[in-house]
Every structure is written in C-alpha cells, then in structure tokens.
Amino acid sequence: MVTPVLMIVIPLLAAFLMPLIKKAHRYFTFSILLLNAILSVLLFAKVYNDGAIYETIAGFSPPVGIYLAVDNLSALLALIINLFATINFVTSKKDFKFSMLYLLAVTGATGIVLTGDIFNMFVFFEITAVASYALVASKKDEKAVEGSIK
Hints:
By secondary structure, this protein is mainly α. It has helices spanning 4-17, 25-50, 72-91, 96-114, 118-137, 142-149, and strands at residues 53-57, 66-70.
C-alpha cells in the first residue's frame, strides 16, 4: 500500500541516520531518493486512478494531528520534486553533511505539497528553509555564507 506518510518519514529518518553511514553515504542517499521517487510514481498512479487520499496521523483530528491530503496536483508536484531531487543528486559530489541536508530539504519540500493544513505546511517550510540555508553555506565561500545569513 502506498501511503504519503512513507514519503515524508523515510527520508527524514535516513537524514538522521546519515552520521552512522559516513562511508557509504552516497549510495545510501541515492537509494533513499530512488525509493522516494518510486513511491511518488506509485502514489501519483494511485491518486490518478482512485481519487484523492486523506490521512490523519497520530490518531488526532486535523486541528491537532498531522493531516495529509493528496490530490492530483499535490501528487504530481511530489513526483516532480522527487524525480528532480534524485537526478540532481547523481550529479553532485559532496560529503555526508551535504547528503544529510539534501534529504532534509527533500523531506520538507515533499511535506509542503502533501500536507493538508497550514500549521504543518509552516513546519515543512521551516525544515526546507533551514536545510537550504545550510546547503548554501556548505559551499564555504564568502558570498555563500553571507547569502545564507541574509
């Protein structure tokens, strides 16, 4: 069964496991991104054929719990995000810190398009923003560090 929760939880957990897998971080990150891309293709096909998916997480109703709503547009955007993230990662040659931040950025971007409420959208925006600032600063160039602070 394809569930949008997996597309958020898997890269999030993988990002926090990254320090344990320093030597094989490229293969690990690529496999997680590829898995997420496959899940997004399956999710898009499911939503296209069966209609929108609505899920509440943690057993609470939408004002308190996490609410995911996936329609055709959000499934398509999740597919585009994950496919481009996978293709882009293949061309990058960075260390494990980059891989960890990259997975966090992908998690946030995917969460933004799959969430069904404004509070969790804000949380995913923050995850994406913090990861993006750190990715810009990881270049260790004077302009990159200045740009990430502004």
